[in-house]
């Protein structure tokens, strides 16, 4: 899931979406949000998704692995395999 600010983030979200699909990601959704985050964040919700989240961070830039955030504490837990990318 790629969250992007509705005022100016659409193109970047599509660029990342195309990249992830080209790499074989089964499902990529994009969603505009009304507020912008200060910096990119890649959130994973299952321990099994930790490494792939880091790989995604390396591929899309914007701060690399420093932007990966552990959200395994979050409840209710999203479905398995969910990774969120929040774009500034």
Would you kindly provide a written description of the structure presented here, covering whatever features stand out?
This protein is α/β, with parallel strands linked by helices. The protein has a single domain (2-86), classed as Alpha-Beta Plaits (2-Layer Sandwich). Helices cover 27% and strands 22% of the residues. The chain has two helices and five strands; from the N terminus they run βαββαββ. Strands 2-1-5-3-4 form a five-stranded mixed β-sheet, with helices on one face. The longest helix is centred in the first third of the chain and has 13 residues, at 10-22. The model has no long low-confidence stretch (mean pLDDT 94).
In angstroms, what is the radius of gyration? 12 Å
Q: Strand fraction band?
A: 15-25%
The overall number of domains is: 1
Series of secondary-structure elements, N-terminal to C-terminal: EHEEHEE
Number of strands: 5
State the oligomer. Answer: single chain
- How would you classify the helix and strand content by structural class? alpha/beta
Mean pLDDT: 94
Relative helix content:
25-40%
List keywords for this structure.
2 helices, single chain, 88 residues, five-stranded mixed β-sheet, globular, alpha/beta, Alpha-Beta Plaits, 5 strands
